[in-house]
Write a sequence for this structure.
């Protein structure tokens, strides 16, 4: 499923680039400028990693508690 | 009042507490027991029904929350180390009104690690160890479980207080002290009731944990009564006694954990007694060198540290003596883990590598602490530049592994399930230990470099130290990953880990030996004792001692 999602995303982006050259991506191009000057230090990559870990724990707790 | 007088009052108070716990309070014993039990359960009303009273639930709850606190503690410390070389890294948080600085993050990371992780893991372990060694059950599982959430709230308030000391003109840290002491007093009463219902003589590790818990509030009361709490020396001594409290609890936990995890009996009861008595009689080097943190906790103004000549002599002497209980503990734990031979028993068992690391590193870090503390006590202050790195190393290479190791080794018995994966536990250990040790060693190298330039009065920016700090903070990230791995392993294990009562599969083969063994053993142990031989000696059955003769024809 992950591979399929990745491939279809790439296909969509390439297709969009061919059909609408030099046009910004909808939604994404409006959201990204909000983060300008926010994640401008390498520390954010590490914090992002820790956040993924925390969400993995939360996800584990939810799935374990609701399984069966 | 001088330092030695305050210490004498502390020794006397602990002795009185020990006697009272053992002998009871004369005719009031039964009344106090039933009243304490009422206060711990029924007096709390509906909140007590929110938690379950199943056996082991309190220890499990404290241990899981302690493990979870490892993540924020390591992340905050990592951010503090990063900001020491890149102060503007988190400037974007200023739009939310947050302006984190390296020093405040490192202090709050230290507090969260000590009170959130180490404190909760040790108290959780004590809730299993004390009843187990006393041959009884915890007096009230419900209250102990409920108090774990109060303690967690206290740690959260502590974290806020370290970064924002005053909100609306009100000091925040005393609120954290109030909450944590509320939970601690309930836990102490619970432990005393448990100890009172013991059915057999309780071994020393259990007493260490109880006395360790009690010594925290007792030391503050003693310093308040004897007077020096508003002086710099008194606040410094209060911080040191906080270290004593944690050291005693940690000693009890790892002595039990080393014995239980390895399956070997405690190597020396005499050394355990030396550890306990020595820890009380001496001044422990664990913790921050300055007494300011004690004044923050108590909400009093910080006094300048101006010890008298007698205080310096007595303090240095008692600090140096503190190596005796630390070496005794380290030797006892390592020898217990080795057992009869040269190998550590069950080296893959979760918790054992952590305990081994803590016991191994306790002595060198304590020696480093002695140098820095004596330097501070005498007013020289030449080594205070490495103080922060050394304190962090003490926390992340001794106290956290010790408390986590003890908690991991008793987790199966407390929760009824093993951690999910031994392999993941091993990975978590290497990430955590490797990250903390290497990251903090590099940070300490940068500290030394800064100190050298400061001494030479060079005002230029030290680019070498800055680069080493980058490396140190990135390496410390391994501790964050290790914390996440450990927490995931414990949480998943509590849901679907192998049941703890499933014993190991017995071997289908057995070795019949002509030797009488006093207990079961392994081939490895026999070989390690240099008693066994792999060469089989064949002796013919018909052989006799009669000398042979030529065959008569």
């Amino acid at each position: 499923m992950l591979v399929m999602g990745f491939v279809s995303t790439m296909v969509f982006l390439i297709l969009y680039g061919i059909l609408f050259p030099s046009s910004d991506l909808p939604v994404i191009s409006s959201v990204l400028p909000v983060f300008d000057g926010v994640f401008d230090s390498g520390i954010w990559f590490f914090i992002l990693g820790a956040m993924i870990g925390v969400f993995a724990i939360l996800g584990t707790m939810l799935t374990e508690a609701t399984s069966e | 009042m001088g330092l030695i007088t305050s210490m004498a009052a502390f020794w006397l108070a602990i002795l009185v507490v020990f006697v009272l716990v053992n002998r009871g309070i004369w005719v009031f014993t039964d009344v106090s027991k039933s009243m304490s039990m009422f206060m711990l359960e029924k007096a709390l009303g509906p909140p007590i029904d929110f938690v379950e009273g199943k056996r082991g639930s309190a220890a499990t709850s404290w241990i899981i929350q302690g493990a979870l606190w490892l993540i924020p503690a390591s992340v905050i410390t990592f951010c503090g180390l990063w900001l020491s070389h890149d102060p503007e890294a988190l400037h974007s948080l200023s739009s939310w009104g947050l302006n984190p600085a390296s020093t405040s993050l490192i202090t709050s990371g230290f507090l969260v690690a000590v009170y959130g992780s180490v404190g909760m893991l040790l108290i959780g372990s004590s809730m299993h160890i004390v009843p187990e060694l006393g041959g009884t059950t915890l007096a009230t599982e419900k209250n102990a479980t409920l108090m774990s959430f109060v303690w967690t709230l206290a740690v959260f308030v502590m974290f806020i207080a370290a970064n924002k000391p005053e909100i609306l003109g009100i000091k925040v840290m005393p609120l954290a002290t109030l909450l944590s002491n509320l939970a601690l007093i309930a836990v102490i009463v619970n432990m005393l009731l448990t100890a009172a219902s013991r059915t057999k003589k309780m071994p020393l590790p259990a007493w260490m944990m109880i006395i360790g818990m009690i010594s925290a509030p007792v030391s503050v009361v003693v310093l308040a009564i004897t007077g020096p709490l508003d002086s710099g020396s008194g606040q410094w001594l209060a911080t040191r006694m906080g270290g004593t409290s944690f050291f005693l609890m940690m000693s009890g936990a790892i002595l039990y954990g080393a014995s239980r995890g390895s399956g070997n009996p405690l190597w020396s009861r005499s050394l355990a007694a030396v550890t306990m008595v020595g820890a009380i009689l001496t001044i422990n080097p664990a913790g921050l060198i300055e007494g300011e943190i004690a004044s923050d906790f108590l909400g009093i103004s910080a006094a300048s540290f101006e010890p008298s000549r007698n205080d310096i002599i007595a303090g240095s002497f008692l600090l140096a003596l503190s190596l005796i209980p630390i070496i005794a503990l380290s030797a006892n734990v390592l020898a217990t883990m080795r057992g009869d031979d040269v190998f550590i028993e069950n080296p893959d068992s979760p918790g054992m590598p952590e305990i081994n690391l803590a016991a191994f590193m306790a002595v060198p870090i304590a020696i480093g602490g002695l140098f820095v503390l004596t330097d501070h006590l005498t007013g020289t202050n030449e080594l205070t530049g490495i103080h922060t790195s050394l304190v962090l190393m003490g926390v992340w290479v001794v106290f956290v592994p010790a408390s986590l190791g003890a908690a991991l080794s008793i987790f199966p018995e407390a929760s009824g399930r093993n951690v999910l994966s031994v392999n993941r536990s091993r990975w978590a250990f290497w990430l955590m230990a490797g990250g903390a040790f290497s990251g903090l060693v590099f940070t300490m190298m940068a500290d030394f470099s800064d100190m050298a330039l400061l001494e030479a009065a060079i005002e230029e920016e030290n680019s070498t130290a800055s680069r080493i700090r980058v490396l140190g903070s990135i390496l410390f990230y391994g501790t964050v990953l290790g914390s996440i791995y450990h927490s995931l392993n414990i949480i998943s294990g509590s849901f679907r880990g192998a049941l703890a009562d499933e014993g190991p599969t017995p071997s289908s083969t057995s070795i019949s030996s002509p030797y009488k063994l006093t207990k079961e053993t392994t081939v490895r142990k026999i070989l390690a004792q240099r008693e066994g031989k792999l060469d089989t000696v064949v002796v013919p059955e018909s052989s006799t001692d009669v000398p042979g003769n030529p065959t008569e024809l």
Summary: Chain A touches chain B at residues 37-43, 46-47, 49-50, 53-54, 56-57, 60-61, 64-65, 67 (CB under 8 Å). Residues 37-68 of chain A form one domain.
